[in-house]
């Protein structure tokens, strides 16, 4: 009897799965059924976008500037000279092996902002703030520019230039993208972030509008590439990278709208902030009171007298369109700097045509050995918002034309004529074999010397700039 009591006590101590009799479980396969049709998913709303005027006047500034000159600090140094290679820059073996302990599994040592700290998306230096503020000025003008072209020109005007209502919708979507970009940069900069201004554009028809957009988005993109790697705020650089790549797509689309090959180059170009500001400022007529000002230099304007241009017209060919390259038209540009091309006004009320993305239709817009006729301004012009900025140059006599394209910084001699006129010859240089360096929508400027520079330290060219930059439509 006692052993039955012991057995009962032992069974009570066991887990229930051990104490209960073992049962044979049959395994069955079930099929996951998904209901047809859309499911109701609650919207997770995003933060609001920054407010901006829905319509602005597009007339030149006619008042008196309350202040002149770029923003400056109380103390200004004598300049930045080209230094030497830092010894630590060449010590890493770069042999494919791991040379330091891993901070975590599958994580190599090194990198910036990889230590697990919480990112703070703000400006961390004067360089950051002034660079990001310049980018915001660019986003604001692009928003206004895209909207202005859609308001100014009718559906019929676009059709006469070969664009459909779907193309107009795409430009409208680009404007919406700029609202997001401007909001992001404003949030990074804080309460004193620049506001949207009033602008004055030189185009008079759809083709000139498209060419202006294609060139303006090009220097907006290049201006960010020029400072992106130098930002102290790696967090801000991350977000800006994700917006500027969108702008690169916009520029590609405007090239296609013009019938140009969308991306003829292997690498995109970066330019210094003062180059981008020199190209942008002339089209800002006025800004709101207490607008945040910029530190960047405005160089004297440079005009390309015989800018390469593309002319598109309808034809009876099998592909539905034809294109002729006009490379010897003088006085073909609407203004210095951006050098947008002058097109005759459209008179046709029918539907035009534009080149499709067919490589058999493309031929070079320019070529090595092509003479480039130039005209440049003297320092001292009042430009930019409220005519409150003044063009300056600290260089000596003009001697060279610098060509900034892809990874290359190339110089050609400047042959000076009467007054501020001269010419140079398009160089014949490759970035790598089979990649002509002088291609796409690129940049030139007049300099007093030919210092050796690379994409990372290109801003050291600024003290040598006599006039420019100008956008050159090489391809």
Structural account:
The protein has helices spanning 2-13, 16-19, 126-152, 155-160, 165-189, 206-228, 234-257, 273-280; strands at residues 198-199, 284-286, 302-304, 309-313, 322-326, 371-376, 382-383, 389-390, 400-405, 408-413, 415-416, 421-425, 430-432, 435-436, 441-447, 465-473. It is of the alpha+beta class. A hairpin with a 5-residue loop joins strand 7 and strand 8 (389-390). Helix 6 (206-228) packs antiparallel against helix 7 (234-257) and helix 6 (206-228) runs antiparallel to helix 8 (273-280). The longest helix is centred in the N-terminal third of the chain and has 27 residues, at 126-152. The model is unreliable at 10-21, 312-329, 348-353 and 355-359 (pLDDT under 50).
In short:
The chain is α+β, with helices and mostly antiparallel strands. It has helices spanning 2-13, 16-19, 126-152, 155-160, 165-189, 206-228, 234-257, 273-280; strands at 198-199, 284-286, 302-304, 309-313, 322-326, 371-376, 382-383, 389-390, 400-405, 408-413, 415-416, 421-425, 430-432, 435-436, 441-447, 465-473.
